[in-house]
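Risk register update: the risk of archive-format incompatibility is retired. Evidence:
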Amino acid sequence: MQSIRDSSGNERLWQGDPAFWTGRAPILFPICGGLREDTYYLDGQRYSMPKHGFAKISEWQTENISSDRAVFLLTEMHPGFPFRYELRAIYQLVEKSLKVTYAIQNLDDRTFCCSVGSHEAWATPGGLESYSIKFEQPEQLANYSPIGNLLPRGPVILGENVCELPLKTEYFAIDALVFPHLKSRAVTLKKQDKEELRVSYDGMDVLLLWTKPGANYICIEPWCSAPDYVDSDMQIRDKPGILTLAPGKETERTHLIEFF
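Archived output:
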């Protein structure tokens, strides 16, 4: 996605700025986050894969466009993911909502493991600290901020029974806030008392919040799986939340963005 404007012409998606981050809404595949030593093992074979995979820098095919729906297709192979597959990113307008579906199909004769996630950056005009994140349910906010590209085993508890988290620049001085164990399957971005948008992510186990200090955006990122822990055994089948697809199998993961 490159731009989302509301009926008043306001741009809701961060438009990129080389001073901070040029991204807008990359798709993460076949991994989300980093791997220990940028490596995973599957069935005794070693594979190398950079942080967030390769989909975000690949050229997608435009498969279908209509007035309220767009479908993009990725089939590109990579030395770290030498499997035949199809990944579709499907965008569907539903009233004031945008439904985003990632559909993965294994066309290979071997089982593969993968993850998929979103990295959408929402504009925060007026500054990040004017905004907060409201959780669907009260949460014990156990944050696993990365050490480099990897997660520590012990979290930092940001609060107990937290319903709303005021966003602070200091949270992102090192990297993202990583929440692998939330009960909530939806969060709402608020500016003071006004709800801006809600992201619902049934089927996604991990939620991240991220920005570059000083930039006017917040990424709300539902992922299937988290980055590796610092002591990961690098066996991708052991990775929590990983998707395992046998030959001929397919799966979908969806999140919904409602605008207010």
